[in-house]
Write the structure tokens for this entry.
Amino acid sequence: MVRITEQLIRKKSEHNELIIGTLEELSLHQEDIERIEHIGQWCRDLKILLLQSNLIPRLENLNRLKRLEYLNVAINNIERIENLEPLEALRKLDLTLNFVGELTSVESLQGNYNLREMFLTGNPCTDFPGYREYVITVLPQLDHLDGKEITRSERLRAAKDFASLRETVVQHEVLHKIERDEQRVRVQQSITEQEECVRDLPDDDERKASEFWQQKSEHCPETRIQMAKFSRRGKDRPARDADKSEEQKRKRRLFAECGRPYSLNEPRLSFEFRDEPDRFELDLHLYKYLDTSLVDVDAQPNYVRVTVKGKVFQLALKHEIQADRSTCQRSQTTGHMLVVMPKVHPERMIKPSTGRQMISSSGSGTVARPNTNLTGTVDIRSICNSTNNSKPSRINEDEVPDLI
């Protein structure tokens, strides 16, 4: 059973800054509410109250709403009009698609002198002979009934035969009560038989719901309650399935069984990684307007990890770094973050020598030899002769194949 709670009313009063004491309009439609309560105590300044598409069986606990002008309780389980006499300012009443079969209960609205418009479309009482004539005679203050204007001539014609008209209405009320009692027993037996058939099935089994939706049912308050129950189960099932799928998801693994760190990019961030001889540099392209408090950086000897709003960016390093000397800076212009990680064993950097080259020999010590550059032309014909003085063997021209 869904109850009207203070939390629910505050949730629906966002337009009034969550203040319910001065609330003038409240919409609690499609909440599967089964009883009207607490509204008259918490929201006495209400002018509009919308309670359509619920499971309310009775009008009650509204006597303190002295300023209420519009009450909408369409598509509920109301069978009788009652307890609305204290609503002095009530101008519009909507009872569309309920189960009002006691048409004489509209006489309780004679004291609501401000009532100008009422809707009873879709109720069993609208099928009674003389329904409209009876209502417009009993409630002379009405201007519109079921969306149709009431004319003066129509009201005068209805008042002529009011005595016999009321007797007819009372007779049909009695017949309706008898049929309603039989229907209540019949539907209750049907619900009991259905529950017995699927009693061994779990509550979340789809067969239990399909068995209900496939069978024929009567239009009555009991059936509407059952429909709401199974509809609520259908809405809750996707949420339960989503929770199960989250649990069944593969757990995030940051390390292999041997302890080797994995590289992963859950936040899908762009980055640049530079491997310098003495350090590693990671330029991570964070979002420009992301608060720095949502970013956590952890540099370890063989990996660096950046957690952004709970999502992990981890990069494995092929050389050990000095974690205590690593630095992290973020740009205030672009939002990018630069992590500098010095290596434990920097690579040796060999610089080319300039000027004179020192050559050592065992006999004469150290001798300075200046760098010399080639100048002039080179005789390419004498290159081979200078290295090899032996004459080349002559080629037998007969052995050379003809040119094609």
The longest helix spans residues 162-197. The first strand starts at residue 25 and ends at 27. DSSP finds eight helices and 17 strands in the chain. The helical segments are 6-11, 39-42, 131-138, 152-160, 162-197, 206-214, 221-248, 383-387.
